[in-house]
Amino acid sequence: MTDRTPGPDPELALSVRDLKTYIYANNRCNRALDGVSFDIHRGKTLCIVGESGCGKSVTAASILQLLPELSRIEEGEIVYHGAEGPVNIERLKRNGRRMRAIRGKEIAMIFQDPMTALNPVYSIGFQIKEMLLYHTRLGKRARHAKAIDLLRSMGIPLPEKRVREYPHLYSGGMRQRAMIAIAMSCDPRILIADEPTTALDVTIQAQIFELMDTLKREQGTAIMLITHDMGVVAELADDVAVMYMGQIVEAGPVGQVLRNPLHPYTRALLESIPVLGRGKNQQIRAIPGQTPDPYDRPTGCQFAERCRYRVDACAEMPPETQVSSSHRVRCWRHREFMADAAE
Amino acid sequence: QAINDNQLSDPRVRKAIALAIDMDTIAETLFEGAAIPATGLTSDPGNYPEGMEAHGYDPERARELLAEAGWDGSRVLDMVYYYPDQQTADFMAVVQAMLADVGVQMEYRLLEGDVGAQISGVPEDPVNGPAVVDWDLLYGARAALAPQEYFNRFAEGQMPTVPTVPEMLPLVAQVNASADPEVQRDGYRQMEGIINENVYILPLYYQQLYIFESDRIDRNGHPYGNEQYSYNNGIIDWTVEPNEDGEHVAYTNAAPQQFFELPWQNLGIWIHNKYVFDTILEGDPTLTPIGGELAESYELSEDGLTFSFTLKDGLTWHDGAPLTAEDVKWSLETAAQVPITQPLVMATLLRIEGGQAVADGEADEMSGIGIDGNTVTVRFAELDPNVLLSFSQFAPLPMAHFEGVDPLQIQQHEFWQFPIGSGPFKIEEARMNEFTTLVPFEDYHRGVAKIDQIIALPSADGDANLIRNAAANRADFGYTKNPVDVPALEEMEHMNVYPVNIPYTRMFWINQFPRD
Amino acid sequence: MLTYIARRLLTLIPMAIAISFLIYLGLDLTPGDAVSHMIPPDVIGTMDPERLDELRESLGLGKPFLVRYWIWITGVLQGDFGYSLAGGVQISKIFLDRLPATLELSCAALVISTILGSILGTISALTRGTFADQALTVVGMLGVSIPEFFFGLVAILVFALNLGWLPVGGRTLPGYDSFWDRLPHLIMPALVLSIMMTAGVMRYARSSMLDALSRDFIRTARSKGMPEWRVNLLHGFRVALTPVIVLIGFRLPVLIGGSVIIEQVFQWPGIGKEFLSAVRSQDYPLVMMVALFSVMAVLLASLIVDILTALIDPRVRLGD
Amino acid sequence: MQPSEPILRLRDVHVHFPIKGGVFKRTKDHVRAVDGVDLDVYKGEVLGLVGESGCGKTTLGKAILQLVRATGGSVTYHGDAGETELTTLDDAGLFPFRKRLQIVFQDPHSSLNPAYTIFGSLEDPLRHYGVRSRAERRKIVGDLLEAVNMRREAMDRYPHEFSGGQRQRIGIARALSIEPELIVCDEAVSALDVSIQAQVLQLLMDLKREKQLTYVFITHDLSVTEYLCDRIAVMYLGRIVELCDAEELFANTLHPYTEALLSAIPVADLDRKSERIVLEGDVPSPVNPPSGCPFHPRCRYAQDVCRTDVPALRPYRTAAGGEHLAACHLIDQPPAD
Amino acid sequence: MSDVPLNPGDAVRSPPRPRTRRDAQFDRIRDREAARQGTKLRGGRFLSKFLNNRLAVVGLVIFASIILLSLAAPLIAQHDPKSPNLRAMLDPPSAEHWFGTDRTGRDIFARVLYGGRVSILVGLGSALLSALIGVVIGVYSGYVGGWLDWVAMRISEIFMSFPQIILVLLLVAILGQSLLNLIVIFTLTGWGGIYRMARARMLSIREEEYVQALRSFGLGPARIAYKHMLPNALGPIMVNITLSTAAFILQEAGLSFLGLGVPMSVPTWGNILNAAQDLRLLENAWWVWLPVGATISLFVLSVNFIGDGLRDATDPSQQG
Ligand SMILES: Nc1ncnc2c1ncn2[C@@H]1O[C@H](COP(=O)(O)OP(=O)(O)OP(=O)(O)O)[C@@H](O)[C@H]1O
Ligand SMILES: Nc1ncnc2c1ncn2[C@@H]1O[C@H](COP(=O)(O)OP(=O)(O)OP(=O)(O)O)[C@@H](O)[C@H]1O
Ligand SMILES: [Mg+2]
Ligand SMILES: [Mg+2]
Fold first, then answer.
1. Which of A76, A192, D25, D154 has CB atoms 3.0–4.6 Å from A109's, for a disulfide?
2. Which residues are listed as membrane-spanning (chain D) (predicted)?
């Protein structure tokens, strides 16, 4: 970050600075996150988009330190701004008491695949009440009642009966709603949703998004929504961060980024998808090539070898540049694109 | 010269085999001295003709003989055996090597399945064969109650391996038809000579019987004898050191695993056969009949055809019921119908008047047995040389318990889960395969035994468990014939081992019949 | 549920009949029979073949194969298991005598191995990659690589003979009426028998636990801020338990037949030892019954496994 | 594109899978995966098949190729030699038609045999279809790879060395290897990242033009169908509920399900935020589908008739005068005659 | 999106996390990658994974050495394993007899080497044979189904409804004792497991799309099953072969212990180890049983290690 606008922001819920998380599986080092910075604000939705393997899930996992065992946060800061002041999450012990106090209570998370994210041998109610057990002082009955309430508010019919049922009796959409119920049970300040609808049908996806929207509006929850679907971004995001190979290449309010993309990758991405309603004659333009091997990342701009606008400078890593108070981009040539857009 | 196209019918070849085996060394090393190299079929030198000697070990001569006989070096002899223990396998390996040393190839195998049929099949033509049995050499044994048993196989049409030897036939008849020891001995001498000369059978070694006893037992002067059979070893006088609780408890082995065995088959092999059932006469340690046991007195007529005895007064079974002459008669008649009755005893029973008819199921009672009060008179249709011996081994059973039993299935009778006998000890508790306990029979006609309790565990000789039990002080007395057990027992400080000579010879049967 | 069990039990019958027929046929084709074992070979040679045939006839060995099978199977179906040929003892009595011993030994081993195996396996999985894990892995491997009778013999040598702590074998002695009196007899065979099983359960529990720990719901559980022990035990172990229970369920038949060798080593008067001697003496009615019994045990065990999994895993429903 | 002559004609196709259960493994029930489908596929067109997960798209695709056998109805192939009923042919009889019909699958991970090189995977069908010499097979495979924008050398490498997009292209090459007329693309791009998806879509379009192929394009992504397809069939619970030209479908949606589907799709266009119709509930199970119109439990217009009567797929006249088929009781347009 | 300056004082600073064992491991990996940037991993993933498993490599080395030594027995052993020397009974190990001599003065070293040939033949041979049968049937019937599958499944059910040891004893009783019979027996008892595993693998591979693709070309079922699907099931099959090899070798020893194994005239590991039944030898002549016991255990251990390594290497879900 070069230029930062000073002044505290009461709505700031979480800030991530220059986060580097490496994964050491298979005796190799995968620099899954290589300098990621962003902020999450209360009552706002930050969408993180990017292709498979670009590090979206690792980002989410880093925030709650739910990383795979063979991995480590190398550098950077994850600061959670809670009621009791800021906490440097990356310094907490992974499964220590303080980290656990944040998980679920302050920051909750829902996962991509509702089919596997719930424990099949416990009832839905049990899995909700478990969360209440650790983060509230509610008694047994109260917990049960609260679990039923939560299910009801997620729009699950017959919650009194459903609360005793096991996950396999739930459909995918219902499971994801139960997941959200678990996540929302302690009124967290931040909800991290890692591709919550990828495994679901569009009609069900619409139901889930409706639910999340309500939460954001009614509870002021800060939402970090991970997706790879530009459509979702356009519909739900307040802010968007576009990731590519472990870095955020462009970030800013959704209007600015989608209308006026400054990074060639964002542009290419937007050009490569058919958009509903544009008819049969729309032009789509494929991005040539493929993402580099994560174990063998280029040294310079990660996108360079697939980029139409590549120049020699791209052999070196471009810095993140703040192009407006809220819009930043990581490209050597962003000024040219800004000029283009201005025309 | 070979008498048929099987080279083994050539006495030179058989002799060579005998000469190739260094039995002295084997007995000394592999058997650790627990076997006596054999000279003749019987172990009593009095049965040998003048100058008869063992073949000894002479591989040089063996090779010469084989060369003379034109032995086909490519032939692989097929040796079979039926003892599944390790030592037998070791012995086979040694014999294999020794035979190979003189140029005779041999492979050995353990017989499986119907062993009896595989070793005793007799050719229809007892002279020319072909052989019924499917092997060249058999490592087997002969355990006899009386010496005749060693030779009876040489009777016409009895031998699975040797074409009829005409000169043997009258000799076999001679030893069976006379009760005169001199006449019999003469027959034995001649037969031993013929066999030794022609190597019809190759006696290897005499097995001894080893009585083991712990320091805690005191026989109080009673003798050690052939424990495989019934003899008077004075058990009622034995004492045992008290254990911590002050009880006089002695451990032994050979407890039943599923059922108690009928005492008519193996007369003394199981502890219960010896101590639970009394026999009519009693034998000394060499099994020579010396007096009555159940019988107060007995008498064998001059011609040997009438045998009578009187039972002691007031004899009872362990359950208190009186032991009567009726019981004895019934037992004799039933035993004749039981196929597994000891062969020598069976021979005696069949020679009783009407005995054969009862055995064949043509009659229920033997006409030759008469009862008068406590006196039983047995009349024989033909002379039996072993009457006294048989009666010293024969134990009557309580008839009342066997009402309506099929003699063929007598062993399957419930009685054998908890037998009632007449001996010095009665069964207290019988848990099959776990233990059997015996306690003195308080009404025993010779007084009450001094040992308070005998605990028998279900290990048998040759079973590694015997040694383990002995090492753990759980075997105070018993016997074994297994040479492997002997050194192990001898090594234990608290155990004493007493060898006893018994008529038991291990030998090779050599199949001379042509095989196809 | 009950109808399901009843149905399953019904399906066992044709299976058991088919199997029994095959065994009967197989045994019938083997040379020799019980008679050839009832009489020592030294003696049998001198016996009159006619008498042997009589004996065979009286034991029912002379009838044609199908007739014998028919008599046998109808008897079994009516609850008459027949008699051991050797001693004429009712087979049901033999079972009643032997089964407690076998069950005592195998249950002890099963309990020891289950508890020890799942605890060690879980520890091993939770400390994966560390020295403790590797040590447990190697020890577990050793446990399944050393012949069990070898363990048994060495144990007898050391603990019974050299140290004199435990009896060499057997199950009981006169006057030992309570379980506690007999306990010293049980310790060695049970421990030796459980070594191999423990090692097996341990390795299985480890991989099952690792599998459970790699599942997504573990991450969900962590994301709730629960302490590690709860994540590992309530979520990990609970899920890992299902396959371990299945494994143990399939081990249940060991309760009947799996301890043949150990029973032999320790003179334990169980079914296994009985089976061995029945096989050796070609006592077919007994062999048949033990075989059939153990087959039924396996089939029942698989039923029990199904029921157990249905009980502990809510996803599994017994088909009805 | 105007309908030319049909290449394939499906009439009342049913595919029911038995559900076996119980101790005796008896059939307890049926999954009505495809439950009465009428469909014509015309030469040279791209027919889109959309619908939610489990509605029977894949099954229908496989039923076309006889990879699953229809339990009812007919699938006729219209070739130069006239019409052939495929459902009654055995394996040998099908052999000549296998050459005409091919399929490309969804999952780039399981669509290639990991144990063989690309050549190893592709040569067997060629050999099966009579290319005897290895050199010739190598040449054909090389040409195919080039046709899908890959290098010839790729044929000697193993699948795990390729990215998802490349594998998908290899899958297409394999389908092309025997020069089929019709290719069923079963979610051929669904598993790919958006940036790769476009590559494959373009490849498919190029190939179609070059080789005069016909596609049945199965997907759940309506934006892709709109871009790619000439006609679109919307499936719901084993039935086709709407079928018409692509433009017509988006311009004049007739069926309430299609309507909801269209509105539920998030569109990457900030200027086009339409009202979202959120459907209640889940897709019902095909084991016991609802009575009447299968969609009625989730339909906001549902009326009594919908609960009892199964609506037939009836033609309506489009604004442009074409044909628009829909299965709904409540369409207030006059049906075409 | 506005950025907040982060003053170090703002955040509640907890002390930096203490370094752990893992950290050291990670640093090593990073350093190594930094040192030779760009060099690719050599060899297949499978091989490298297998070779990374230290225990598996150790296992492979032991396995290969024992097999080589056994094969080269005539070159290495200075004595004939079958020739007794009664004057050299139970000699302790010496330069002349490396492992000493047994009760008949045979050289135990030579016996162990030659015995290894038979034992390994029995173990590996039966495992391979049962794998062959199981795979040939399982692969086809798993893919095609139909009556063949039904029949094979029923037969395997019958074989698998016996506790292993009971079935083996039963078959020994039926077939009799010989080297060949033992292999047949083990094969009979072992094929079912491999058959079911191969079948289950086929059932899951059958759903893979490349199989569907091949079907859409009209390729014959045998060709699809054996040529295209089988190679993908080889991993678990190999694991299974190693595990059955280990099991069979142990079983051979167990059967020899019961006196029902390979005839005693043939030296096998089990037959040699059988000497340990003799308490005296167990106590006083350790060389008679320890070397051979160790060899069996070591060999089985090595096979188990290899099996474990294979399992890890072929299991795609395993990371690390
Ligand atoms: N458990 C893990 N073990 C090893 N590598 C991992 C693991 N999880 C993620 N990675 C690696 O980290 C990198 C980033 O992965 P990440 O899961 O964050 O991607 P993503 O953007 O969430 O992708 P997707 O859209 O597929 O979920 C990838 O190179 C991936 O291979
Ligand atoms: N072999 C089969 N046996 C039984 N049921 C099957 C089988 N194949 C598919 N089904 C069922 O048939 C229904 C339709 O399946 P199909 O795969 O055709 O749906 P789809 O529309 O392709 O779904 P998706 O979008 O998830 O691929 C589903 O309910 C499925 O569970
Ligand atoms: Mg992800
Ligand atoms: Mg599908």
1. A192
2. none
Measured in residues, chain E has a length of 320
Q: Residue E185's closest CA among E125, E237, E139? A: E125
Which pairing describes strands B239-240 and B105-110: parallel, antiparallel, or unpaired? unpaired
Q: Does domain A12-106+189-342 fall into CATH 1.10.1060.10?
A: no
**Most confident of the following: A239-253, B251-265, E101-115:** A239-253
Residue A278 to chain E, least CA–CA distance (Å): 31
Distance CA(D214)–CA(D78), nearest Å, equals: 13
**pTM of this prediction?**
0.85
Pairwise CA distance, residues C90 & D88, whole Å:
63
Mind listing the pLDDT tens digit of every residue in chain D (337 residues)? 445 788 899 999 999 988 876 555 666 788 888 988 999 999 889 999 998 888 889 999 999 988 888 998 899 988 877 888 888 888 888 888 888 888 888 887 788 888 888 998 888 888 888 888 899 999 999 988 888 888 888 888 888 888 788 888 898 888 888 888 899 998 888 878 887 888 888 888 888 888 888 999 998 888 888 888 999 999 999 999 999 888 888 888 889 999 888 888 888 777 776 677 788 777 788 888 888 888 888 888 888 888 888 888 888 887 777 788 899 888 877 666 5
How many helices (H) does chain B have, and how many strands (E)? 15, 19
CB distance B42 to B189 below 8 Å: no
Which element (helix H / strand E) includes E205?
helix E179-205
Amino acid at position D148, single letter: V
Tokens at B343, concatenated: 């062969």
Residue A15 CA to residue B209 CA, distance in Å, equals 95
Domain ranges across chain A = 12-106+189-342, 113-185
Q: Break chain E into its structural domains and give their ranges.
A: 54-85+105-318
Contact A79 E11 (CB under 8 A): yes
E82:B97 CB<8 A: yes
Q: What pairing do the DSSP bridges indicate for beta strands D72-79 and B217-218?
A: unpaired
| Domains and their CATH numbers in chain D | 6-100+180-326 (3.40.50.300), 109-179 (no CATH)
In this structure, which residue's CA is closest to atom 28 in ligand 1?
A53
Query: Distances in Å between the alpha carbon of B92 and those of B106, B279, E85?
Result: 10, 39, 13
Q: Would you tell me how many other CB atoms lie within 10 Å of the CB of residue B137?
A: 23
3-state DSSP assignment of residue D18: strand
CATH label, E54-85+105-318, candidates 3.30.240.20, 1.20.1050.10, 1.10.3720.10, 3.40.50.2300: 1.10.3720.10
Contact B281, B293 (CB under 8 A): yes
Which residue is associated with the tokens 């190990």? E93
Over residues B426-447, the pLDDT tens digits come to 999 888 888 899 999 999 998 8
Closest CA relative to residue D64, chosen from D86, D82, D44, D46: D86
Q: State the maximum Cα–Cα separation within chain D, in Å, rounded to a whole number.
A: 67
> What ligand has the least distance to the C-alpha of D194?
1
The three-state DSSP-derived secondary structure of B193-209 is: HHHHHHCCEEEEEEEEE
Spatial separation of the C-alpha atoms in residues B376 and B309, rounded to whole Å: 5
Interface test with E, best of C23, C150, C282 (most E CBs within 10 A): C150
Both tokens of B507, joined, read 């030998």
**Alpha-carbon span C52 to C46, nearest angstrom:** 11
C-alpha distance from residue E5 to each of A5, A7, A16, A45, E13 (Å) = 8, 8, 12, 21, 16
Architecture of domain C99-312: Orthogonal Bundle (1.10)
- Checking ipTM against 0.95, whether it exceeds it is no
A116 three-state secondary structure: helix
* Rounded-to-integer distance, Cα B396 and Cα B264, Å: 9
Question: Does C319 contact D23 at a Cβ distance shorter than 8 Å?
Answer: yes
